[in-house]
Amino acid sequence: QVRLQESGPGLVKPSQTLSLTCTVSGGSITISYYAWSWIRQPPGKGLEWMGVIDYDGSTYYSPSLRSRTSISRDPSKNQFSLQLSSVNPEDTAVYYCNAAVLKPPREYWGPGTQVTVSS
């Protein structure tokens, strides 16, 4: 059973960079064919996929966030991280890390962490 846990500051000031880390247990982030994503949910809105880092280290980002988003990983700590630059109040959301694999289809979620952008 893969388990994920988000961590990072709950309050970020406008124009700063939001940094979150997802710590993974129960499996390596280099397991073949797993994809490790960041997903967020602003208040009163639906889930928004932000980007993914694959088991081989390849990254893909949402077109709307690509210019501000970076996802990286540290296999030695079994962690992957999100950086979102130049944040504004619209980036206030619950941020989730997610693991998914297609064959067989499985998906795991962290509990989520609230991030508020405010001065």
Classification by helices and strands? mainly beta
- The H/E string reads EEEEEEEEEEE
Q: List low-confidence stretches.
A: none
Query: What is the typical, i.e. mean, pLDDT?
Result: 96
Question: What would a concise description of this structure say?
Answer:
The chain has no helices and 11 strands.
Describe the structure in your own words.
The protein is mostly beta strands. The chain is 0% helix and 52% strand. The chain has strands at residues 3-7, 11-12, 18-25, 35-41, 48-54, 59-61, 69-74, 79-84, 93-101, 106-109, 113-117. Strand 9 (93-101) and strand 10 (106-109) form a beta hairpin. The protein is globular and about 40 Å long. The chain starts with a strand and ends with a strand.
Provide key terms for this protein:
mainly beta, 119 residues, 7-stranded mixed β-sheet, globular
Q: In terms of topology, how is this protein built?
A:
Elements: E1 3-7, E2 11-12, E3 18-25, E4 35-41, E5 48-54, E6 59-61, E7 69-74, E8 79-84, E9 93-101, E10 106-109, E11 113-117
Parallel strand pairs: 2-11
Antiparallel strand pairs: 1-3, 3-8, 4-5, 4-9, 5-6, 7-8, 9-10, 9-11
